Structures are given as C-alpha cells and as structure tokens.
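INFO batch 0412 | record 1 of 1 | parsing
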Amino acid sequence: MAIGSYEKCKHYIETHSPLNEILPTRVHNYPCITISRETGAGAQLVCKELIKILESISESDEVNWTYFDRELIEKVLDDHNLPKQINKYMKEDKYRYLSEDVNVLLGLHPSQRTLLQKISESILQLARMGKVIIVGRGANIITAKLKNSFHVRLVAPLHIRVRHIMKIENLNKKDAEAFVKHKDKARREYIKSSFSKNVEDIEMYHIVVNTGLMSYKESAEIIAGAVMKKFPNFFIDVVK
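INFO prediction complete | emitting tokens
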C-alpha cells in the first residue's frame, strides 16, 4: 500500500478536478467507506484487499478506488496551503486543547480547532467524490449525514493486535503492547475531544468486523458484500 500510494492519491484528486474533461459526469456519487480501527487490527491490509474487490465489481470510469490514511494529512496541508511544519500537530496522538490558547497567543501553531475544521473539510470533499476509503480522523462522524457513506469498525483481540504490531513495527512483545495501548488511548481521546463521541460506540458503524476471527481477505469480502448490498446500483453482477 505504501508503494505508489501518494501517486494514487494525487491521481484520484486530479481526476476530480473541475479542469478534468475525461471523467464522465456522474448522476450520483459512488460510496465512501470510512474505517475506524483498533491499533493493529490490520486496517491497511484489509483496505488493500477491499480495493481489489471493489475495483473488480465497480462500473468502469477513469477513477479507481483509493485509500487515504497518512496521505490525508498531506492532502489537508496542500488544500489549505498550511506549512509542512504543522504536520506533527495534526496527528491523532498530538491532539490536545489544554494549552491551545497559550500556543496560539505565542504563535507556536495554528488553533487546533482550525486544524480540525480544515481536516473535516478535506474529508467531506473526498467523501462526496466517492470511490474512496478514509481511515481514521473521525471520518465516520464527519461524514455521518452523507447518503453515500458507509462506516466500518475493525477490532481484534489484544494479543493478536500486539503480534501484528510486533511484525510490522519490528518491536518486542512488551514494546508492541505499550505501542498498541498508547495509540488506542490517543484515538479515544482524539474522538472524545474533537467530537464528544466514544470511538467504541457501535451505533456509529454499519458493521463491526473482528479481524482476529477472520483473515484480512475474508474481512474485506464481508465489508465489500455489505457495501454492495447497501449501494447495489453502483456495482456490476449484483443481485438486486
């Protein structure tokens, strides 16, 4: 997913540009899938499999299904001409209101509320385009009122998530467990401080998928099947 991901995101955005004359005019927007995840639940690998499936069953046009995660930060910066130095303030585990007023007065960084607004604007822009998977950043809450949005929560038992993080981050078991717990806490606090919501509230999601009980491919197949059922008019070979 990392190889060429920036170019894929860039192409996705460029094909939706008002100057683009290749993309056919759509009567309705394709679905947007948001994914909230527990740390180590395999969101990136699930998205990789999910994109393969969705591409195989989607009506053809010039736009491919695209995955936005870390790249979303760069998208926000580019959209709003913000300096690259503030990138670190936009990460979920750096989001704090406690010293915001002091920092703004001292000119240390932009208001966190301003950053949240800009992130939300970019997420809404991507979601309205459709054929996009947006991971994290409270995307399910931001797009909750969009008719083309579909919200997924990925979970897994702690020991499985720790094992996954040990592998992808090259950490020992103790450090991997600390990493998982720190990230999970940061994400809970981000959603609570930003949106006054509980990230674990299952009522915010269309489906909750346990990747500890299924392979990432099987998890992707379940998500794809649910999306197809929800939006049958956008996919081929679907029984309506």
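INFO post-check: Residues 94-98 have pLDDT under 50 and may be disordered.
INFO record closed
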